[in-house]
TrEMBL record:
It comes from Iodobacter ciconiae. This is Copper-containing nitrite reductase. Binds 1 Cu(+) ion. Its EC number is 1.7.2.1. Residues 1-30 form the signal peptide. Residues 70-180 form the Plastocyanin-like domain. Its main location: membrane. Cu cation binds at H116, H121, H156, C157, H165, M170, H311. InterPro entries: Cu-oxidase-like_N, Cu-oxidase_fam, Cupredoxin, NO2-reductase_Cu. Keywords: Copper, Metal-binding, Oxidoreductase, Repeat, Signal. GO terms for molecular function: copper ion binding; nitrite reductase (NO-forming) activity.
């Protein structure tokens, strides 16, 4: 009897110690979190990028993101019902620092027709936040996660049918800057590729709905940068000066097609492939899968137009995956000379 009593007392004491340790650890964590400075994330529409993070310590970062369904031109003369994060395709870019605590507030506007949620690939946890944020129109949800892994990550709606929500424009990117920060550059841009599926062909005109069977068959009517065929051309072209060091945060929202990202007239000095911390040098074209990303860096050498394309070139010249970077500055004939045309000699 005494032995049994002694065993039970020891067991109770051990359990009490475990509970006390857990409460102490939880209390210490709560105190650490409560002491963090609080800031609200600056979210900018593509191709703009939120400013670099200059602080050297963690913070609690509040991210306020809305879900908005809206009709907009997918190409001049043709309209489409986009589902968006923040009213843009891709959704507004989020920028935090490794070690930050991120509070994500998702609001599904009352004007929406459907429930939505968000799955962030930067989240370490089941569903990437999707189950915590599934909300009907007119509702909001929030959850908190620790930005543990530096890199460039895709986020997207994960409400069924998931491919349909993504194909309607519900994707974007979150950059988790490493603790030491990124090397300064002259300009940063945010570009994402996506594939869209309509009954009509590219530029058919009028209002075009989503075509589920074409999506299942992966027969895209449009392959676009930043959600429209003219998002990076004409007055919307990216700009730079000669000798600018450029960084492009490039992602592929999909839902189906891999991108062969290439810039005609430039060689990438560095490509942080898969959106991670390792880089390859002197790259002509980089493959980016649906739900993936890459960070490309290059220096503009001469004035003129550089052309962004998916080098599966039918997508560039027939389905919209094309953009322009207009570079201004002095000519540098030692690098690139003017062409000289003349007739062939008949002798």
């Amino acid at each position: 009897m005494k032995l049994k009593s002694c065993y039970l007392n020891t067991k109770w004491a051990f359990k009490s110690l475990l509970v006390f340790s857990a409460l102490t650890a939880s209390s210490a964590w709560a105190e650490t979190e409560a002491a963090l400075p609080i800031e609200t994330a600056v979210l900018l529409a593509p191709p703009n990028v939120p400013p670099a993070i200059t602080r050297k310590t963690p913070a609690k970062v509040i991210v306020n993101l809305t879900v908005e369904e809206m009709v907009r031109e997918i190409t001049p003369g043709t309209k489409y019902m986009f589902w968006t994060f923040g009213g843009t395709v891709p959704g507004k870019m989020i920028r935090v620092r490794e070690g930050d605590t991120v509070e994500l507030n998702l609001m599904n506007l009352a004007s929406s027709k459907l429930p939505h949620n968000i799955d962030l690939h930067a989240v370490s946890g089941p569903g990437g936040g999707a189950s915590q944020t599934l909300i009907a129109p007119g509702n909001q949800a929030k959850f908190t996660f620790k930005a543990l892994n530096p890199g460039l990550y895709v986020y997207h709606c994960a409400t069924a049918p998931v491919a349909m929500h993504i194909a309607n424009g519900m994707y974007g990117m979150i950059l988790v800057e490493p603790k030491e920060g990124l090397t300064p550059v002259d300009k940063e841009y945010y570009v994402m590729q996506g594939d869209f599926y309509t009954p009509g062909v590219f530029g058919a005109g009028g209002m075009q709905p989503f075509d589920m069977q074409k999506s299942i068959d992966e027969k895209a009517s449009y392959v676009l940068f930043n959600g429209a065929s003219n998002s990076l051309t004409g007055k919307n072209a990216l700009t730079a000066k000669v000798n600018d060091k450029i960084r492009i945060f490039f992602g592929d929202g999909g839902p189906n097609l891999l991108s062969s990202f290439h810039i005609i007239g430039a060689v990438f000095d560095k490509v942080y492939f898969e959106g991670g911390l390792k880089f390859q040098e002197q790259v002509q074209t980089t493959a980016v899968p649906p739900g993936g990303s890459a960070i490309v860096e290059f220096t503009t050498k001469v004035p003129g137009n550089l052309t962004l394309v998916d080098h599966a070139l039918s997508r560039a010249f027939h389905k919209g995956a094309i953009g322009i970077m207009s570079v201004t500055g002095d000519e540098r004939p030692e690098i690139y000379s003017k062409g000289i045309h003349s007739k062939l000699s008949t002798k």
